[in-house]
């Protein structure tokens, strides 16, 4: 029995949309004196109640200007947040450069800590060398993660995985095996059925309602040793983890074959944590930060959930000194529509920042054997603004140096992050229209009020290390 036997993307939905039925209000006919007394009594009660409510409102207003939509329980607390990276084998940065713990070590920490449950939202799975017919020592870390997942399941940890439906290119043999061995429950999120196109491109782990990972690394052994990746580990953070679980539950429930995007959204998916009311977190017991999680595409966002695109725009629009962007692919267009269309939504925001507000813009895109040849034109076009009206716009390619091993689909900078003078943003999406209109992804925003050794400062150091490295090629408009 294969994991996907019972799955048909063509399956028609027959589940009824949720409807709130309000019972028709009963007409009141004043038939008796008893009844009239009752009316007066109820009316009096009503007036008293109303007075109390108004009084409370007035008192409340005096002490707190925010009277509407207070979160049920404020999201506050101490959390440990660690920037993690995969640096490809045989890539070295100069001594003294920032060096972060590996994504592998972060995942291993999660696997060690898990006692109850592990939820993973993923695109595809190739954690083992066999999955790609690779025999090389650098597959070891991925294989170790796979075995540790099995071991966790065997000691009773409940594992749930949501991923894109497998394809020829991405058969995801790992999760088929986990499912067969009854070590994980696996669901397939069919974005095409739900929103008309796209995939789930999220890379997220959530453990015991306490700890989570978000970043660029796929469930792929190559993402640990042969591809440059960046993510954030968040430990001991139940309140943000609960918010992350709401994003996971959206995927999980929508991955049922007959699911529909709810309208209206039931409360269990809703959040009150967003740009306007971020979680108030103390990072590592010292850095006060406003934090929130964004989700893409917008169709998967219940009310008040920040959507990833608006979040990116808001961060660019609020930058005062600089915006540094590191994304694998940058296209102010659609890529996967039948006819490509121009989509300068993010591009315009970057140009506005540079041109209108003199914010220093730097964009680092990735160059590898599979880079679409037309990306260069959009990068050149952006770079062409440099100097106009005193705008500062610099654009570079980052090319992971080659290595003697010939491993397909490796040696690339897969990072997707942005850092400004006030905010650190780590995402899972390339910057093209498709990633925001139909593809599932997550953005993680950290807005620290302090300076010093912040996550933001560390992310800036990563950007500058890559930018100043020997692995970049400047993009000029006359190349
Ligand atoms: C690995 O090799 C087997 C047998 O030659 C082949 O069937 C399979 O398609 C290969 N898988 C990949 C990912 O190349
Ligand atoms: C999480 O909290 C536990 C219990 O307080 C502590 O032992 C552990 O070191 C913490 N882990 C991290 C990564 O902060
Ligand atoms: C960061 O927080 C400050 C207030 O602490 C706020 O003014 C600013 O808009 C926030 N930035 C973003 C991008 O959310
Ligand atoms: C794509 O472009 C072709 C040629 O211009 C046109 O015939 C077709 O209808 C377009 N398709 C869509 C979906 O717009
Ligand atoms: C990329 O292409 C070059 C030139 O065709 C080739 O030498 C190199 O092996 C390729 N690298 C990878 C990782 O496929
Ligand atoms: C975007 O990112 C993914 C990996 O996260 C990569 O495999 C894909 O080819 C990228 N580019 C485009 C143009 O979609
Ligand atoms: C927080 O503490 C962890 C564990 O000691 C460390 O790895 C991480 O870099 C710290 N984060 C910041 C922002 O300093
Ligand atoms: C770049 O390469 C040159 C020559 O190999 C070396 O001297 C220099 O230190 C390198 N710079 C960085 C930032 O790695």
Automatic annotation (TrEMBL):
It comes from the Eukaryota. Residues 196-223, 409-435 form the PLD phosphodiesterase domain. SMART domains: PLDc. The keyword Membrane applies. It holds the Pfam family PLDc_3. Keywords: Membrane, Transmembrane, Transmembrane helix. The chain crosses the membrane at residues 37-59. InterPro entries: Diverse_PLD-related, PLDc_3, PLipase_D/transphosphatidylase. Signal peptide: none annotated. Belongs to the phospholipase D family. This is PLD phosphodiesterase domain-containing protein. It comes from Porites lobata.
């Amino acid at each position: 029995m294969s994991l996907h036997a019972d799955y048909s993307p063509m399956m028609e939905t027959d589940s009824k949309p949720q409807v709130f039925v309000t019972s028709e209000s009963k007409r009141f006919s004043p038939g008796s004196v008893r009844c009239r007394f009752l009316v007066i009594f109820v009316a009096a009660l009503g007036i008293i109640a109303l007075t109390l409510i108004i009084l409370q409102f007035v008192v409340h207003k005096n002490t707190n200007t925010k009277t509407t939509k207070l979160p049920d329980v404020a999201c506050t607390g101490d959390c440990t947040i660690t920037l993690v990276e995969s640096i490809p084998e045989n890539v070295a940065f100069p001594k003294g450069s920032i060096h972060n713990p590996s994504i592998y070590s972060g995942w291993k920490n999660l696997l060690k800590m898990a006692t109850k449950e592990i939820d993973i939202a993923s695109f595809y799975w190739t954690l083992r060398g066999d999955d790609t017919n690779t025999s090389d020592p650098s597959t070891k870390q991925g294989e170790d993660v796979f075995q540790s997942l099995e071991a966790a399941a065997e000691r009773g940890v409940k594992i749930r995985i949501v991923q894109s439906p497998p394809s020829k290119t991405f058969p995801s043999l790992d999760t088929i095996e986990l499912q067969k061995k009854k070590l994980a429950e696996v669901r397939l999120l069919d974005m095409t059925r739900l929103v008309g196109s796209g995939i789930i491109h999220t890379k997220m782990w959530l453990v015991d309602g306490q700890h989570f990972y978000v970043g660029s690394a796929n469930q792929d052994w190559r993402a640990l040793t042969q591809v440059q990746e960046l993510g954030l580990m968040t430990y001991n953070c139940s309140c943000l983890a609960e918010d992350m679980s709401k994003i996971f539950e959206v995927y999980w429930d929508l991955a049922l074959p007959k699911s529909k995007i709810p309208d209206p959204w039931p409360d269990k998916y809703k959040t009150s944590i967003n740009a306007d009311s971020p979680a108030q977190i103390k990072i590592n017991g010292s850095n006060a930060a406003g934090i929130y999680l964004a989700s893409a595409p917008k169709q998967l966002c219940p009310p008040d959930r920040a959507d990833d695109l608006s979040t990116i725009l808001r961060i660019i629009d609020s930058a005062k000194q600089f915006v540094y962007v590191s994304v694998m692919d940058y296209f102010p267009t659609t890529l996967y529509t039948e006819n490509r269309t121009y989509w300068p939504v993010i591009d315009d925001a970057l140009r506005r920042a540079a041109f209108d507000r003199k914010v220093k813009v730097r964009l680092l895109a990735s160059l590898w054997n599979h880079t679409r040849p037309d990306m260069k034109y959009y990068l050149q076009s952006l770079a062409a603004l440099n100097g106009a009206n005193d705008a500062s716009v610099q654009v570079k390619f980052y090319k992971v140096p080659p290595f003697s091993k010939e491993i397909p689909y490796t040696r690339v900078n897969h990072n997707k992050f942005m850092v400004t003078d006030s905010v650190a943003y780590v995402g899972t999406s390339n910057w093209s229209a498709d990633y925001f209109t139909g593809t599932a992804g997550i953005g993680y925003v950290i807005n620290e009020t302090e300076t010093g050794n912040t996550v933001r400062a560390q992310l800036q150091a990563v950007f500058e290390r890559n930018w100043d490295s020997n692995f970049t090629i400047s993009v000029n408009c006359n190349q």
